[in-house]
User: What shape does this take?
Amino acid sequence: MLGLHHLGTLELPGGTVEAEESFEDAVVRELAEETGLVARTEDVVLLGSLVDHVAGVLRVTVGAVVHTWQGQPTTQPDESVGDWEWYPLDQLPDGLFVCSAQILTAWRPDLPIDHPSAYFTAFASAK
Assistant: This one.
């Protein structure tokens, strides 16, 4: 599932981790805030972390897969990403946000997505 950012890129749901929040809790919260989908932390599998440098900024991205959810994705008021659509993995569109492209290929290295390199460290629980 990808959404259209107001700047024109297609992105996976995501956001920032709040203070005293686990990565799994952040995934569930951000998924609900951005898409309206409801998930449980026990249905989240953390993949690992990506580290890259963009415009002089060190960026760390944690990827996750949500196996079960309830609802249908809808554009949420006051969110910068919306117009959510499901795409088959063999028909992913061009114009992916770099972090989304990096996470997708960390999860599925066979996907033919071109993007700048990043350093990926898999979490032990993702194996």
